[in-house]
Write a structure and sequence with these properties.
The chain is mostly helical and about 80 residues long. It is built from four helices and no strands. The chain has helices at about 5-15, 20-35, 45-60, 65-75. It is globular and about 30 Å long. It is about 70% helix and about 0% strand.
């Protein structure tokens, strides 16, 4: 996959639909750790992975991390 944030979020959402939220979380964590810093042309979509990961983390009982990611998404200029 390239570094289009929306594509990563869409891929993770498909894992969620398939019943594998853990794989979706892993995928989004990889995106944030290795690829998010390289986003340039698709910056308008940068909050999609953050919002989805926040939702998934809240669902699995990690509200502090979810809140941190939502704050980061809200602070985005995009």
């Amino acid at each position: 996959m390239g570094v289009c944030p929306q594509a990563w979020a869409d891929c993770a959402e498909e894992f969620v639909k398939a019943g594998d939220s853990a794989k979706a979380i892993d995928l989004l964590e990889e995106y944030l750790a290795r690829h998010a810093a390289r986003v340039t042309a698709y910056a308008c979509y940068e909050t999609a992975p953050l919002r989805l990961l926040a939702r998934l983390l809240a669902d699995v009982g990690e509200p502090e991390r979810a809140a941190e990611l939502m704050a980061r998404a809200r602070a985005s200029p995009h």
